């Protein structure tokens, strides 16, 4: 029976030195990071030689193109006299990240650097550094006007199945979090959609017996809403789901359509009921419908406002209160189903 060696434990630490633009259209972000890797090696005495001594062969799994790298090696001794090899990689480039836009423009994006090895799990196991946690440099964030960084950094221990060799490779996902600053979209998105829709109500100033005038104004408002929605959509990547601002704009378009249908019905009734003189017809049904639709409009906007607080702002507050450093262990079965459990939590 062949002798089986235990896999080496390699401690990994990532420092997000400088984060650049977060490109939601291309699903990527730019940044500079410092990757620090440590492992024990009793064969090294005074000087580490990459060609002679063991190396975990670390690389960045989600890098886009070639990263600019500067690699240095140092040696230090523990109190027990053990030799620790310290490899530091300074990385600069672009990283792929699937950006979720369900809550756009109130979204929080996870910015992840995935570290893995060319060696299998039988040879090396990657683990977050137990004494020196990963962190993010908030002061060097280049997109401060559009995004806000959280102090919280997550390290998720994972494994990757190599389809070519049918072997498992150890992996760590180190993630920081950035929230979009939505002020621009509040005023140039939600507020403008609200203003366009509210112009449905001055149409009631026109006599309902003149449906051609009412319908002309409503058609203009409806087409303006559709055009404005197309302008917003053109600035976002194509997704198979609706974003938060999509849901709001579509809701207001449906409301515009409802008002348009009502004006067509009331105009037809006012001009085609031959039993009653048009001049003597009461506008009471028109007034009643005005207040019903106004109440519906207020209710829709209040409901949407409460929903935004629940699905967007409450998770943000929870992330702000989260401890700066969390380690999680993610186990993948052969069927690609996964379970995630927190096994260690420590504060800087």
TrEMBL record:
It is found in: Membrane. SUPFAM superfamilies: Neurotransmitter-gated ion-channel transmembrane pore, Nicotinic receptor ligand binding domain-like. GO terms for cellular component: membrane. Its main location: membrane. InterPro entries: Neur_chan_lig-bd_sf, Neur_channel, Neuro-gated_channel_TM_sf, Neuro_actylchol_rec. Keywords: Membrane, Transmembrane, Transmembrane helix. It is a multi-pass membrane protein. The chain crosses the membrane at residues 187-206, 212-232, 253-270, 290-313. PANTHER family: NEUROTRANSMITTER GATED ION CHANNEL (PTHR18945). This is Uncharacterized protein. It comes from Rotaria socialis.
């Amino acid at each position: 029976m062949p002798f089986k060696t235990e896999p080496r434990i390699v401690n990994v630490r990532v420092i997000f030195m400088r984060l650049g633009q977060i490109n939601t259209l291309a699903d990527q972000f730019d940044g500079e990071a410092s990757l620090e890797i440590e492992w024990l090696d009793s064969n090294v005495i005074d000087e580490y030689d990459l060609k002679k001594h063991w190396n975990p062969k670390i690389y960045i799994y989600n890098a886009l193109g070639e990263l600019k790298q500067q690699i240095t090696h140092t040696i230090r001794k523990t109190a027990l006299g053990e030799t620790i090899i310290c490899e530091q990689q300074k990385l600069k480039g672009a990283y792929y990240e699937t950006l979720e836009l369900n809550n756009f423009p109130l979204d929080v994006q996870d910015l992840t650097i995935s570290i893995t090895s060319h060696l299998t799990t039988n040879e090396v196991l990657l683990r977050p550094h137990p004494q020196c946690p990963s962190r993010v440099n908030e002061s060097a964030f280049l997109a401060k006007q559009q995004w806000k960084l959280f102090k919280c950094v997550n390290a998720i221990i994972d494994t990757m199945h190599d389809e070519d060799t049918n072997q498992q490779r150890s992996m760590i996902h180190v993630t920081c979090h950035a929230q979009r600053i939505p002020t621009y979209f509040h005023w140039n998105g939600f507020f403008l959609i609200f203003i366009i829709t509210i112009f449905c109500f001055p149409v009631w100033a026109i006599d309902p017996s003149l449906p051609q005038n009412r319908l002309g104004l409503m058609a203009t408002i409806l087409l303006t809403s559709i055009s404005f929605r197309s302008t917003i959509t053109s600035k976002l990547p194509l997704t198979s789901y609706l974003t938060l601002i999509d849901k709001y704009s579509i809701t207001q378009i449906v409301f515009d359509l409802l008002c348009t249908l009502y004006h067509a019905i009331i105009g037809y009734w006012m001009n085609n009921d031959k039993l009653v003189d048009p001049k003597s017809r009461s506008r009471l049904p028109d007034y009643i419908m005005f207040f019903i639709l106004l109440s519906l409009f207020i209710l829709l906007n209040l409901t949407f406002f409460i929903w935004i607080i629940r699905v967007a702002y409450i998770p943000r507050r929870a992330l702000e209160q989260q401890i700066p450093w969390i380690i999680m262990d993610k186990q993948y079965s052969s069927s690609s189903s996964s379970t995630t459990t927190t096994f260690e939590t420590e504060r800087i």
